[in-house]
Structures are given as C-alpha cells and as structure tokens.
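Narrative summary of target 7.
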Amino acid sequence: CRIVQRLLKACPPAQVSEITQTLIEATSTLACHMFGHYVVQHLLQFGTEEQRHHLVRCIEQNAVSIGHSTVGGSVVMTALTHAPSEDKAWIARAF
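Modeled conformation, tokenized:
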C-alpha cells in the first residue's frame, strides 16, 4: 500500500490513471481492508477532484458495509474532511 501511495504522489495523474481507475473500482473492498483503506484515504486527500468525486459515489453506494467496518469509518471521515460540500451531502444522506 505504501508503494501505491508513493506512485500516486510522485507520478503525474495521466501516468497513473489506469491504477487509480482500478483502485476506484475496488473502493468498497479497499475501504474495509486493513491496509487498503490507507490507499483510499490517500486518493481522497491528494487525488484529483474527479477521482474524489468517484470515490465519494462508491462510498455512498456502499455506505452501510463501509460504515460498519472500523477502518471503513476512517475512510468515511477522510471523505467528509476532504470532499467538496456537495459530495459531503451525498455521504451524509447515505447514512
């Protein structure tokens, strides 16, 4: 997970677009994983606006399962901290 975080931080978005797309598609699983949640949080903090938007939609769609996980709760908190107000409202409505 640290390697993926470093790649996402060091490389331009165009260079890691396939990786980020795969990560976004696996958000519901990664958000509840002992180490994978760090990658999701990293994308929420440092990803592009579009990436954050897609992550928030995945979190919203899987709110119950993510919210019941201890590490998933930290992902939700990170999303609520770093997402635009409109996206925060989507998360709040899901709970």
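The CA atoms of residues 45 and 82 lie 6 Å apart.
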